[in-house]
Design brief:
InterPro entries: Ald_Oxase/Xan_DH_a/b, AldOxase/xan_DH_MoCoBD1, AldOxase/xan_DH_MoCoBD2, AldOxase/xan_DH_Mopterin-bd_sf, N-heterocyclic_Hydroxylase, OxRdtase_Mopterin-bd_su_IorB
Shape: globular
Protein name: Aldehyde dehydrogenase
Organism: Paracoccus acridae
Pfam family, one: MoCoBD_1
Radius of gyration: 27 Å
Number of strands: 28
Low-confidence stretches: 1-16
Mean pLDDT: 96
Length: 744
């Protein structure tokens, strides 16, 4: 993957594997750390500061990591604070906040850091008092020796403890679940809430520096385009505009590099925006100026119907079984491009001083940002400081630091003065790293009872790999392992194929990534097969999943398994069945529904967690769809922070509702057609589900490995809604979004 290896280092096995495979955090760049001296500081007044090295974008990671540390430290939560780590993976371990793995990878290291700090405090107190360490207790910020009656606060022993040895990992005694004070509690709340509601937080768009300049950029409207000519005369006459700078476009593929264009630098953002409006630019659109997403849909459909795609899973003999089956069924599903569209658009501040660069930015990948800024400016990464602000949403967009590189380049152009680059909503929608467009073609061979005995799935979609390497026409293993090669249905003959598809715009991570089209297609198709067989959808889905069993995903052709050890993280169909039963029972599955109302169901395994959704819809005579009630059940293993699990599931339901009903990015003449939230539609209050009920399943076994939470709630939402639409109207939705299809 060349330049992309830094980000796409996913622990994939190679044909000639000489060393033992690494999984989880061990397989990530720079691995993990659990040294309490890195993550825990205690002031003389007893204030505990936990340094959090993952990016906070609403998922609550600053709270959850602090909870893990504070619990094992046995600290008083009211005296716990958090600090945000800068981008520095050699010190803090991997910092990529993506893949729903922050707690999955760091829950236990952070517990060990807290436990080690507690042990160091006990040892310091024992040495101070001249008593055996085994007789010293540490509880709720108090160190005590019962026999002598001596007590001290954590702050009293902090300096002495900091000079001690860090205990060996194997010597640490972690708490049992019945001893937890914070882990698993539902009433902690976000540690940043007071600062958020009083305006005391700093997001990327809030960053300030003395003497700061402000910049906006006119970027090529077509990927790979460049400035043919420009006239900045009128822009430079605008009050407040100080300079106009041409940024050369990078060679393609461009990874996370800026798109290029013409930057307007001014004394305030409004002046920069007015100056940009006054620019006269003629663009050379390059190779993708003819990209039309509707025409491209036809190309993808043709590819998905062809028989020359790469075979990525081949179990049994699906082609023969399809031909010999008593009945056959087929369907095709389409998902358009989607934009992450976080409420806070990309924004970054950079300044260069004494041969060093410092940036403040809302990034999900601070170490990647650090390295790319260093490369861009010709600096040693040690001379680049990336201060990570809070993120007003991310969803994968802020894993790509192109906007930070823009700020760094413009600071260099202004002799190191601080320059803040702000993206408008229009910039964000026109120049995103979009979720891929996709056509999913499915065929099933059915026995006399309507049960599938053969299954063929062809997926045609441009790959994320297209931003890293020239012309990769097929999906990468991690994209295929998102519900395609690791599909856990109990069908004897399964074949998955991946035809070629060219990318005509930047493709990037979007919350849940390729699970979205795969889940939409598979879960919709199962509902269609159930209807054809005259079967209840839930009963049919459970039957097709089959009995409770544990599946090694590598035996199905999935070499990724979300980077986790398949022996530790097999696919457990018993857990999948349980979330289906939980969500559907809670929704009153089988109840009589009013006219033009329906109940739909879908389930999906992703990011080593299990989620099912039962959605209720109402379809008006005008074709308008309302979603009054949604039940969503998740089994993500142990529940570290139940409040945040619920919040993530609620957000997934709202986001999935938008994907189902209204959200899409379309292209004409190479340009994204949506400008703002008047055309890139997302659910508002009146179109969001009125009730969202979250059901936390499992978690009884504290030794069970943790699953992901941030992303797995999203994939089953859309198919549950469209299945409910069919139950309400008898009309199938195979193309997203629903839009006005129900009125035609």
């Amino acid at each position: 993957m060349g330049a992309g290896a830094l980000v796409l280092s996913l622990g994939l096995p190679t044909a000639a594997q000489e060393e033992p495979l690494k999984f989880g955090a061990d397989a990530m760049p720079h691995g993990w750390q659990d040294d309490p001296r890195i993550f825990v500081a205690i002031d003389p007044d007893g204030t505990v500061t936990v340094t959090v090295h993952r990016s906070e974008m609403g998922q609550g990671v600053r709270t959850s990591i602090a909870m893990a540390v504070a619990d094992e430290l046995d600290a008083d939560w009211a005296r716990v604070r958090v600090a945000q780590a800068p981008g520095d993976e050699p010190t803090f371990g991997n910092q990529d906040t993506d893949g729903s793995r922050s707690l999955r990878h760091f829950f236990h290291p952070m517990r060990r850091a807290g436990a080690a700090a507690r042990q160091m405090l006990r040892e310091a107190a024992a040495a101070e008092w001249g008593v055996p360490v085994d007789e010293v207790t540490a509880e709720n910020h108090i160190l005590a020796h019962a026999a002598s009656g001596q007590q001290a606060g954590y702050g009293d022993m902090a300096t002495r403890a900091a000079g001690g040895q860090v205990p060996a990992r194997e010597s640490l005694t972690l708490k049992s679940p019945d001893q937890f004070r914070y882990i698993g509690r539902d009433d902690i709340g976000l540690i940043d809430n007071p600062a958020i509601v009083t305006g005391g937080t700093v997001y990327g768009i809030d960053a300030k520096a003395d003497g700061m300049l402000f910049a906006v950029i006119a970027r090529p409207p077509v990927i790979g385009g460049r400035v043919a000519s420009h006239d900045a005369t009128a822009a430079l006459e605008m009050p407040g505009v100080e300079r106009v700078v041409v940024i050369d476009p990078p060679p393609q593929p461009s990874e996370f590099q800026p798109l290029g264009g013409v930057a307007v630098i001014a004394t305030n953002t409004w002046a920069a925006m007015r100056g940009r409006e006054a620019l006269v630019i003629e663009w050379d659109n390059g190779d993708h100026g003819a990209y039309d997403s509707e025409a491209f849909r036809g190309e993808l459909e043709q590819a998905a119907r062809s028989t020359d795609g790469a075979v990525v899973r081949n179990q049994g003999d699906a082609l023969t079984a399809l031909q010999e089956a008593p009945r056959r069924s087929e369907a095709e599903y389409y998902i358009p491009h989607l934009a992450q569209a976080p409420m806070e658009p990309p924004s970054a501040l950079a300044m260069i001083r004494d041969g060093k660069c410092e940036v403040w930015a809302c990034v999900q990948a601070p170490q990647v940002t650090r390295v790319r800024v260093a490369e861009k400016l010709g600096l040693d990464p040690k001379d680049v400081t990336v201060n990570v602000t809070l993120l007003g949403g991310g969803f994968g967009r802020k894993s790509k630091p192109d906007f930070v590189l823009e700020a760094a380049v413009l600071s260099r152009e202004m002799d190191g003065r601080p320059v803040k680059v702000t993206w408008t909503r229009e910039d964000d929608l026109h120049h995103s790293f979009y979720h891929t467009v996709s056509v999913e073609h499915l065929q099933a061979g059915l026995d006399q009872d309507g049960r599938p005995v053969a299954w063929l799935h062809r997926t045609a979609a441009p790959t994320i790999g297209s931003i890293f390497a020239p012309d990769p026409m097929q999906k990468l293993p991690f994209e295929l392992g998102m519900g395609l090669t690791n599909m856990p249905l109990d069908i004897p003959n399964v074949r998955a194929e991946n035809p070629q598809a060219q990318a005509h715009t930047r493709i990037g991570w979007y919350r849940s990534v390729s699970n979205i089209p795969h889940a939409f297609a598979i879960q919709s198709f199962i509902a269609e097969l159930a209807h054809e067989a005259g079967r209840d959808h839930r009963d049919y889905l459970l039957e097709v999943i089959g009995p409770a069993r544990k599946i090694d995903p590598t035996e199905q052709g999935d070499v990724w398994n979300y980077g986790e050890d398949p022996a530790r993280y097999p696919i457990d169909t018993g857990r999948l069945r349980r979330v289906i039963e939980t969500a559907s029972d809670a929704a009153g599955w089988g109840k009589e529904m009013p006219a033009r109302s329906g109940l739909g169901l879908a389930a999906h395994y992703s990011f080593v967690s299990y989620v099912a959704v039962a959605a209720e819809v109402e379809v008006g005579e005008d074709g308008n769809v309302r979603v009054p009630v949604v039940h969503i059940a998740i089994d993500c293993g142990p529940h570290v922070n139940p409040d945040r699990i619920r919040s993530q599931m609620e957000g997934a339901v709202i986001m999935g509702t938008g994907q189902a009903l209204m959200s899409q990015i379309t292209f004409a003449e190479g340009r994204a057609q949506q400008d703002n939230f008047d055309s890139y539609l997302v659910p508002r209050m009146d179109s969001s589900p009125r009730e969202i009920h979250v059901h936390l399943v499992g978690g009884e076994d504290p030794d069970q490995p943790l699953g992901g939470v941030g992303e797995p709630g999203l994939p089953p939402v859309t198919p549950a809604i469209v299945n409910a639409i069919f139950a309400a109207t008898g009309q199938r939705i195979r193309r997203l979004p629903v839009g006005n299809q129900l009125t035609s």
